[in-house]
From TrEMBL:
GO terms for biological process: defense response to virus. It holds the Pfam family Cas3_HD. Keywords: Antiviral defense, ATP-binding, Endonuclease, Helicase, Hydrolase, Metal-binding, Nuclease, Nucleotide-binding. It comes from the Bacteria. GO terms for molecular function: ATP binding; endonuclease activity; hydrolase activity; metal ion binding; nucleic acid binding; RNA helicase activity. One of its GO terms (cellular component) is cytosol. The keyword Ligase does not apply. This is CRISPR-associated endonuclease/helicase Cas3. Residues 37-210 form the HD Cas3-type domain. Signal peptide: none annotated. Residues 269-463 form the Helicase ATP-binding domain. In the central section; belongs to the CRISPR-associated helicase Cas3 family. In the N-terminal section; belongs to the CRISPR-associated nuclease Cas3-HD family.
Length: 883
């Protein structure tokens, strides 16, 4: 029998009664063959069984101790039940329409079928209603129903409703459930709590994605032998960890000499014996990253964890940690581990090697490396992706599944606002209930925040400090004060907010060989400052650079590598040859190993200032000019100027940070630093508590405090933000798009602009020809069958390198989803939820004058309200057009 033209065995005997089809003959899937023709795939029973067996194999890959804690009996059956709702007349008809309506059995009466499934949430809704009738536990029906990322709206229907086929079709679905129970030798699981329900929902979706991938499309293939291969290619490779390694075996200097652990690193590794919450508060440069990684190794070695997710504040800082993390992995992962090389991190390059089933294909939402990292054994990513594990967003529970059982390291936790703080509390609770080991790293944590994380009263005011709450006895808080390795005295000079007064002094310092770091609070101010310096620096042969979040990935990586090399240890040999000026935004204050001789910074909240000071004289042996001083210049109004008119005094900074916190920070720093010197780490705890501790206020400060709590017409207050955060927590309610959801309220939603040099739509070859600014070119076919899946992955990765983020409220007009699909862009770029019309995606053609032009008329701007320019040294600039 030719299986490529296979169709379900719908003979007269298959029709039980009018329009009733046996579950054995209901198709579950279609696929496109090499000729571009749509064919039937596996039937519903076969597909559900494949997904159940994939779930079983996935469970077997977890460490035994962890698997017994996470997976209840019946987990594989739970995953298999997701698509039982495809045994329904509407779905049956839909697939025949997709393949060939003429193949439909003659006795099947189309007029009795409602083709629109939206009234009950499609086949997922039918799955939920079926299980609601069969079993007593409503959680089982919810898990099955939300396998597409959200809970379907089934209205007032029930499993026997006429539009779903009535009692006779429900009987077939019940027979299917019994057949799956028998085949998998499992019964319904007993789900103990909300957290386990999220975890099983994630298992169900992931197993379904893999079971719908390349290895399980054509039904003429033997699927059982493909399960392990599919799991390997999806990246579910749990590593073999080398035993009994010391700190020095893992961490070495550039010459290969082993490092000796300091007190903080040693203490954390000794006390990190089991899953729980571990908080390390220590100053910048103490080696907190190495402390966390060595503790993570100890947990992995003991078999109490199955991987590591290192969560950083921004994507920019994530990129530079890859090298450090890979060195760590190379040291701890046994050479005997299966697919050893694929365990290393290669940013977007890993997307070429990993085939992640249906949802992970190019053009789908989980092809994105930021999301996929959550499911890999080891990953460096952003805090945003981790936070969404606890939020009511589409496929939030897949993130929860990916993080379960891992060591989750949360870096730079101090830098999150009240909105994120509420989400972070919920994330930590979720992770602990999923048997994770959570390690929080912070240089600037307040006593109040630490107590909130630990959910118990703390007593120690020491700094540095390790605080521990083991999962086995969470109320028993252990606190370990740590000795300070050294004290650093930094001279602080408060300067006028008018930066122009400093330009000549900075140029002189740079001419004398100093490496100067200047941090602004907005991208626009950083770009303006860079352009002011660039002309002078060119005349004086001084290297000047800019780093912020509005570069394409391609240009950002080049800029970041170049400047981190010059300001880091690897640049010591060239450091004394000339001075340099690096300008940037908040991305420079986090996780980058850069070492400045002089810091200039716009005023910011207390914890941000400390982070920025951490980039100053970072290493003792860094070569420096003879006249260089450990010094920071802070551009700030006086406290009295701030009280008179805080919004005017702080300028654009007041739209980034709350004026009340800015004023409290300014008061604390100006009063405490009358000597003009800050001492690290001893002043950190003191200044943080002076800034953030509760106190009565009068006059202007009382007004600003009320604005902070209750908000004003331009800014939401803490009360509203906390309510918003609680509404977004995954305990029910409407599921949000994971593209638009905010995990940090101070960060705007963004759209994306693809920046190209040439664009041509070749209707003869049915391809879109794109030339990029770096001289590279790609051709995107308009139809999926024209090239292999691996080629699609290559195109998608290449395209992603030339996309820049743009604030949503200043985006050009988005391209239509239908148009993007027509010209093949939907095959390589995720265009948003199926239900959404807009894509938040635009294309700009870069002109010789660096302006971005429209695709239909190169002489027009791509937005009538804004002018857009892009340069590889400046990034995306957005100019309001005066009318």
């Amino acid at each position: 029998m030719d299986m490529l033209n296979r169709k379900p065995n719908n003979t007269q005997n298959s029709l039980l009664t009018d329009n009733i089809i046996s579950f054995k003959d209901c198709p579950a899937k279609t696929y496109i063959d090499k000729q571009g023709k749509t064919q039937f795939g596996y039937n519903v029973f076969e597909h559900c069984l494949i997904v159940g067996e994939i779930a079983k194999a996935l469970i077997r890959r977890f460490p035994a101790q962890l698997a017994s804690n996470l997976f209840p009996q019946g987990s594989a059956l739970m995953a298999s039940l997701h698509d039982i709702g495809k045994v329904s007349p509407s779905f049956y008809l839909k697939l025949y329409k997709a393949v060939d309506i003429n193949l439909l059995p003659k006795d099947f009466n189309i007029s009795n079928v409602i083709p629109d499934e939206s009234s009950w949430g499609g086949h997922a809704g039918v799955s939920a209603l079926t299980l609601e009738k069969i079993c007593d536990d409503s959680v089982i029906s919810i898990i099955a129903g939300q396998h597409h990322g959200f809970t379907p709206n089934t209205g007032m229907l029930n499993a026997n409703s006429k539009c779903l086929g009535g009692e006779t079709w429900q009987a077939q679905r019940e027979l299917l459930v019994n057949a799956l129970k028998e085949a998998l030798v499992e019964d319904f699981p007993i789900v103990k709590d909300h957290y386990q329900a999220l975890f099983l929902s994630g298992l169900t979706s992931v197993a379904d994605w893999i079971g719908s991938g390349d290895h399980f499309e054509a039904p003429n293939l033997s699927w059982k032998s493909n399960i392990e291969k599919a799991l390997d290619q999806a990246g579910f490779i749990f590593p073999l960890i080398r035993k009994d390694l010391s700190f020095g075996d893992i961490f070495k200097d550039q010459d290969g000499n082993p490092f000796t652990p300091n007190h903080a690193q040693e203490t954390l590794s000794i006390e990190c014996k089991e899953p729980g919450l571990y908080i390390l508060e220590a100053p910048m440069g103490l080696g907190k990253t190495e402390a966390a990684l060595f503790a993570a190794y100890k947990i992995l070695e003991s078999g109490k964890s199955n991987g590591i997710y290192f969560a950083l504040p921004t994507q920019l800082t994530s990129n530079k940690v890859y090298d450090r993390f890979n060195e760590f992995l190379s040291a701890i992962v046994s050479v005997d581990s299966p697919n050893n090389n694929s365990l290393l991190l290669h940013s977007n390059a890993s997307l070429l090697d990993v085939s992640f089933g249906e949802e992970g294909r190019p053009g789908n939402s989980w092809f994105n490396s930021n999301k996929r990292g959550l499911l890999a054994p080891f990953a460096v990513g952003t805090i945003d992706q981790a936070l969404m594990a606890s939020m009511n967003v589409k496929h939030g529970f897949v993130r929860a599944f990916g993080l379960a059982g891992k060591v989750v390291i949360l870096d730079e936790v101090h830098s999150y606002d009240s909105y994120t703080g509420t989400l972070l509390d919920e994330l930590i609770s979720l992770l602990r209930n999923l048997h994770c080991t959570v390690i929080i790293l912070s240089a600037t944590l307040t006593q109040f925040r630490r107590t909130k994380f630990l959910e118990s009263k703390t007593s120690s005011h020491s700094y540095p400090l390790i605080s521990i709450s083991h999962n086995s006895n969470p109320k028993n808080i252990l606190e370990y004060p740590l000795p300070s390795l050294s004290h650093q005295r930094i001279k602080i000079d408060f300067k006028s907010m008018d930066h122009k007064l400093l330009i000549n002094d900075i140029l002189t310092r740079a001419e004398q060989g100093e490496h100067i770091l200047w941090i602004e609070n907005t991208v626009h101010e950083a770009q303006q400052l860079y352009m002011e310096f660039a002309t002078h620096c060119k005349e004086l042969s001084i290297d000047c650079g800019l780093l912020h979040s509005r570069f394409t990935q391609h240009d950002r990586q080049i800029n970041e590598d170049y400047w981190v090399e010059l300001f880091g240890k690897n640049g010591w040999n060239n450091r004394t040859k000339s001075g340099r000026i690096l300008i940037g935004t908040q991305v420079l204050e986090q996780s980058l190993d850069i070492d400045a001789d002089l810091l200039v910074t716009r005023f910011a909240p207390c914890d941000m200032l400390f982070q920025r000071l951490g980039r100053l004289w970072r290493h003792r042996n860094t070569p420096r000019p003879k006249n260089a001083l450990c010094q920071a210049w802070i551009l700030s109004p006086t406290y009295q100027e701030a009280l008179c008119d805080p919004y005017s005094a702080f300028g654009p900074t007041s739209s980034v940070y709350a004026p009340y916190i800015l004023c409290r920070s300014l008061l604390a720093w100006s009063e405490h630093l009358k000597t003009g010197v800050v001492t690290l780490p001893s002043d950190i705890r003191l200044l943080l508590e002076l800034t953030y501790s509760e106190r009565p206020e009068l006059g202007v400060m009382e007004t600003l405090r009320n604005e902070l709590i209750n908000g004003n017409r331009n800014r939401k207050g803490l009360n509203t933000l906390q309510q918003l955060a609680k509404m977004n927590i995954a305990r029910g309610g409407k599921t949000l798009s994971d593209v638009k959801v905010q995990t940090r309220y101070s960060i705007q939603n963004t759209g994306q602009i693809l920046i190209v040099k040439h664009l041509n739509f070749n209707s003869d070859k049915k391809i879109t020809e794109i030339g990029f600014t770096d001289g590279s070119r790609i051709n995107i076919p308009w139809q999926k069958h024209m090239i292999a899946n691996f080629e699609w992955r290559k195109l998608s990765v290449h395209l992603a390198k030339h996309i820049v983020n743009c604030p949503y409220n200043r985006m050009p007009e988005s391209l239509s989803k239908d148009w993007c699909k027509k010209v093949g862009l939907g095959n390589v770029h995720y265009l948003g939820e199926k239900e959404a019309d807009e894509t938040n995606f635009a294309i700009g053609i870069l002109s010789s004058t660096f302006e971005l032009k429209s695709i239909d008329n190169h002489s027009n701007l791509i937005n009538n309200n804004y002018k857009y320019t892009y340069r590889k040294d400046i990034g995306l600039r957005i100019h309001k057009i005066e009318k």
